[in-house]
Design brief:
InterPro entries: AAA+_ATPase, ABC_SmlMolc_Importer, ABC_transporter-like_ATP-bd, ABC_transporter-like_CS, ABC_transpr_FbpC, Mo/tungstate-bd_C_term_dom, P-loop_NTPase, Transp-assoc_OB_typ2
Helix content: 10-25%
Keywords: ATP-binding, Cell inner membrane, Cell membrane, Hydrolase, Ion transport, Iron, Iron transport, Membrane, Nucleotide-binding, Translocase, Transport
Mean pLDDT: 89
Pfam families: ABC_tran, TOBE_2
EC number: 3.6.3.30
Low-confidence stretches: 359-372
Structural class: alpha+beta
CATH class of the largest domain: Alpha Beta
Protein name: Fe(3+) ions import ATP-binding protein FbpC
């Protein structure tokens, strides 16, 4: 099947510096893809290049197999069969809801109003035709913007942080409703976001961006569970890092040995695991700490700090082996006093071993901070 949207080695420079650096991405009919990454990584510029609002310096943008931009020509947005949605909704304040939705529609007035009525019904705003944007809530304005973007039946919907301006209590519901409508319309969707939760919730495919490049592409499960490097793992959640040195194909750590295939002896490695994958147990009096099949070699730690955050407890522990700090996230209430000794264990199959290019302190605050 010909991709609905395809970016081939697309590049964009500002003042000689690449902001988008050789992007390759495909989007098929009915697919929802997210460009995910921190602010300034090139996500929105990539979306503008796909829309035709900006022109690439190199590479090609194709829609349904036809080149619409290649560094020499740039087909305007109105000729690309795309819909655009932005964070500020961009509704016309002097037009009522019906005329906002109908803006840009061709055909007779009766045909336009039939489409307006159909879409307002889909977005739950039947009867709002005569209202003006200032009379609507933020969630209602977002629904009008969606109806307007869908009105011409675009083949592709391009969305730049469209939900970030909404109240958090409303965001999940409106986001899910929007996605249902887009899928019902059969529209291919390319969404820009800096929020991993939003990308995981909405996308069939996530393209993780960093410094103008896509560093990893895959479905949400594979991108989360098989990160390409430490930075990719840290973008989705807090992480813990323990260090080791390769010797005869493995590295010794406080949690025992980890295999390091393909790495030379003496290489520094980082073993990455998420706080929710760390298991905590109280030591049994007089019972030795032994490895288990599921959780490998246990280590000893002492509670340094505990915080309860509503539906889970965050426990920081000082490891007995090297005095480094690791975090555990425990569902519900778990509030052992500071200084309490605990047994720490984790499963090997959810750990990631990466070469360490630059030796980093285990208690570096960056390691416990997801990218903004």
């Amino acid at each position: 099947m010909t991709p609905r949207l395809e970016l081939k080695s697309v590049t964009r420079r500002f003042d000689g510096q690449p902001v988008v650096d050789g992007i390759d991405l495909t989007l098929r009919a009915g697919e929802v893809a997210c460009l995910l990454g921190p602010s300034g990584c090139g996500k929105s510029t990539t979306l503008r290049l796909a829309a035709g609002v900006d022109s690439p310096d190199g590479g090609e943008v194709l829609i349904d197999g036809e080149v619409v931009a290649d560094g020499r020509r740039n087909l305007p947005p109105e000729h690309r069969s795309i819909g655009l949605m932005f964070q500020d909704f961009a509704l016309f304040p002097h037009l009522d809801v019906a005329r906002n939705v109908a803006f840009g529609l061709s055909g007779g007035k009766a045909e336009q109003m039939a489409r307006v009525t159909e879409l307002l019904g889909k977005v739950g705003l039947a009867g709002y035709e005569g209202k003006f944007p200032h009379q609507l809530s933020g969630g209602e304005q977002q629904r009008v913007a969606l109806a307007r973007a869908l009105a011409p039946r675009p083949a592709i919907m391009l969305m730049d942080e469209p939900f970030s301006g909404l109240d958090k209590r409303l965001r999940d519901g409106i986001r899910d409703e929007t996605l249902d409508i887009l899928r019902e319309e059969g529209t291919a969707v390319l969404l820009v976001t800096h929020e991993p939760d939003e990308a995981m919730r909405m996308a069939d495919k996530i393209a993780l961006m960093r410094n103008g490049r896509i560093v990893q592409v895959g479905n949400p499960y594979s991108v989360y569970t098989k990160p390409v490097d430490k930075e990719a793992a840290a973008f989705f959640s807090d992480i813990n890092v323990v260090h080791g040195v390769v010797a005869s194909g493995s590295a010794e750590t406080p949690f025992g040995q980890f295999l390091t295939p393909g790495l030379v002896d003496g290489a520094d490695v980082e073993i990455i695991f998420r706080p929710q994958h760390l298991r905590l147990d109280f030591p049994r009096k007089g019972a030795p700490v032994r490895p288990t099949v599921e959780h490998g070699v246990p280590a000893m730690g002492t509670v340094a700090r505990v915080r309860f955050v509503g539906n889970q407890s965050i426990v920081e522990l000082e490891m007995e082996a090297d005095q480094s700090i690791v975090r555990a996230i425990i569902p519900g209430v778990f509030m052992p006093p500071e200084g309490t000794p605990l047994v720490l264990s984790l499963r090997r199959d959810i750990c990631h071993v990466f070469p360490c290019a630059v030796q980093t302190r285990v208690d570096d605050p960056w390691l416990h901070q997801a990218a903004e």
